[in-house]
Amino acid sequence: MKPSFNTILKWSGFPVDEAKVIFKEALAADKTLWQTEKMWEIFKFHYQNNQFYRGFAGKEFADWSEIPVIRRKDLKGDYMLKTPAEVNTQKLYSSSTSGSSGDPLFFARDPLTHALVWENVRNLYEKAGVSLDDRQARMFGISKKQPDRAKARLKDRLSNRYRFDVFDLSDSALDLWVKQFRAQRFKYIYGYTNSLVVFAQYLIRRNQTLKSAAPLLKCCIITSEVCTANAAQTLRKGLGIPVFNEYGSSELGIMGFKESDCWQASDELLYLEVLDENDKLLPDGEIGRLTCTALFNRATPFIRYQLGDLAAIRRTADGHTQILEIMGSLNDLAILPSGRKVPGISFYFVAQSVVEASHNIREFLFRQTSDGFTFEYVSDTPVNDSDFRKIKKDIILYLKEDIKLSAIRTDELQRGKNGKFKHFIYSA
Q1: Nearest CA-CA partner of 18 in 102, 152, 112, 159
Q2: 3-state SS of the chain?
Q3: Residue of 169, 166, 158 lying closest to 190 (CA atoms)
Q4: 340 and 323 in a common domain
């Protein structure tokens, strides 16, 4: 019998039982008082024990808003040089961000923090009706080269999951996906929004749901990419199961989880703030730079840490945090001819009506170049003049100005190594 995920974590040296006790206490605590206590506790720990962070902060503070914001560039380099000496002697979990920018951040977690990150995942997935030990259909990319491909397949086998190749989203490939779902006892789907939307659209065209082919399926959990309300509706219709949206990062774990209106933040592990360009706190509901404090991580000082994402949050009367909106990365801002900057996700809405009406365009993205923008798409037939004019019209509607635009039909769109997909790429 295969050991459970928590058993494997224990065998690997992580304090699972201690994490369960602490997480349960955190769930029951008054969030405002508890978070205030924990955020000052982690700041004082790193200031007193972490030579790197003491030098970065400069002095000890009495006002939280005066503590300097730390960014990825500040933490780049050998993570061991940014870890307190007493923590270096522990069995650390180390990893890196995806490096989609070509420059990944390497970081560490102390054993308790790593166990807490996974306890949070277990708790959230349980709310969605699944377990970490359930059979997972994983919609991620996979390397075409050995031995990386073999390693990924082995890791998937040990983790009770099967990986679908998102680099091929042709109808013939999706036919094989359905056959896999019929043959295997999948309990839930985990993967990238765009690939799953293409799959759902394929199922809708065939007047079927995935649930009818795989009756044991309980839910779909999408990650990494922004999922609009229309995309979520398409997923629910095509898959025939509840859809949950997971927002997080490699270094912090799951930061928010939602099924409908907004993400419920992981207040048990993180303290969230939204700041303006001058690192000043913004009122609830205003879009700004999402800033997070990891309340337990004694290895890497994620204290008022800015990931580079734009978001809006609000605090409820009982102290819980809700993430109202996520606009994507600061690196995904498009620069219009007037010099005005807009979030790259705006381009999704520009093409949405045309894409949904045509039933021809499977995938698309906008790319900013030195002299304008290109609309790159994958489809069976070229976009006609009428649809192209509609896209141009919607650009003016959504972006409030005209731009130079060309259309390029292609067989495959740019993705990250893991199959991560963006609707806007800045390459000017």
Answers
A1: 112
A2: CCCCHHHHHHHCCCCHHHHHHHHHHHHHCCHHHHHHHHHHHHHHHHHHHCHHHHHHHCCCCCCHHHCCCEEHHHHCCCHHHHCCHHHHCCCCEEEECCCCCCCCCEEEECHHHHHHHHHHHHHHHHHCCCCCCCCEEEEECCCCCCCHHHHHHHHHHHCCEEEEECCCCCHHHHHHHHHHHHHCCCCEEEEEHHHHHHHHHHHHHCCCCHHHHCCCCCEEEEECCCCCHHHHHHHHHHHCCCEEEEEEECCCEEEEEECCCCEEECCCCEEEEEECCCCCECCCCCCEEEEEEECCCCCCCCCCEEEEEEEEEEECCCCCEEEEEEEEEHHHEEECCCCCEEECCHHHHHHHHHHHHHCCEEEEEEEEECCEEEEEEEECCCCCHHHHHHHHHHHHHHHCCCCCEEEEECCCCCCCCCCCCCCEEECC
A3: 166
A4: no
Taking Cα atoms as reference points, which of 138, 158, 126 lies closest to residue 20?
A: 126
Of the pLDDT bands very low, low, confident and very high (cuts 50, 70, 90), residue 121 is: very high
Question: Could you tell me if 289 and 305 are in contact, meaning their C-beta atoms sit under 8 angstroms apart?
Answer: no
Query: Rounded CA gap, 295 and 315, in Å?
Result: 17
Same domain (yes/no): 178, 195 = yes
Picking from 332, 262, 284, 301, the residue whose alpha carbon sits closest to that of residue 55 is 301
- Beta-bridged to residue 254, according to DSSP, are 248
Q: What's the CATH number where 379 sits?
A: 3.30.300.30
285 with 342, same domain?
no
Q: At which of 241, 268, 287 does a domain end?
A: 241
Residues 15 and 81 in one domain: yes
* One domain for residues 235 and 382: no
Q: What is the CA radius of gyration of the chain?
A: 22
Nearest to 165 by CA among 131, 141, 145: 141
**Order of strands across the sheet with 372-379?**
405-409, 372-379, 361-369, 424-426
Euclidean distance between CA atoms 216 and 234, whole angstroms: 20
What average pLDDT does this structure show over 279-302? 96
What average pLDDT does range 63-80 have in this prediction?
Answer: 94
If one compares 47 and 170, the residue with the highest pLDDT of the two is 47
What are the φ/ψ torsions at residue 364 (nearest 5 degrees)?
A: -155, 160
What pLDDT, in 10s, does the model give residues 329-367? 655 667 888 887 776 766 776 777 777 676 678 788 888
Q: Answer yes or no: is pLDDT of 82 > 70.
A: yes
